[in-house]
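Entry:
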Amino acid sequence: MILITGASRGIGRFLFNTFRQNGWDVHGTFNQTKPEEEYSSLFSFVDVSDYSQVSKFIGKIRSQLTRIVLINCAGTNYNSFAHKVDITQWERVIKVNLVGSFNMIASLLPIMRDEGYGRIINFASVVGQVGVPGTSAYAASKTGLWGMTKSIAVENASKGITINCLNLGYFDIGMIQDVPERYRQQLKKEIPTGKFGDPQSIFNAVNFLIDTEYINGANLDLNGAFL
């Protein structure tokens, strides 16, 4: 089964729909954005930053879980220069993006280890690689995934489990829609391909990581040669 957090919007929604169209058994979580009514039975409301909610969710669907692929898409953002920060909002980004990913992983690892199979894919970001003003919370939450991914890979590699990060550049989906048009055009000029990425490339990369057992603990850039 494929489990996708944050599957009711943006990249998570795209992956949820695309995997279903390709015949996969998929279950998604949502928090602020409700899923479409026709798919409501395939979704669960979960605040991934709350370990007790995550644990209850996994227990509820435990009987369905076999050959698990976890795709951590749930995320949030908060922009502020560090000297002006609202610390509560800053911490919330860390709790959702980093702690939330770990909560899902930690809850599923025992099942994966017992079965001898698991695939975990985390989404990091080019933002943590280039240094973008006002993004200290988002950058910290995403770069934190790199070290966590490497450590968990080493701990579980002998159990048939892989965990990797995709460092996403700018794609024509998700949070980029909140960026004003004039900044979006400037960003495109800085990307060697001259355009935002096609979400299909994300799906292709995720599929590649699912199929390729010997890629483990890696941080792979998917950014149109932006760096």
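The domain at 2-222 is CATH 3.40.50.720 (Rossmann fold).
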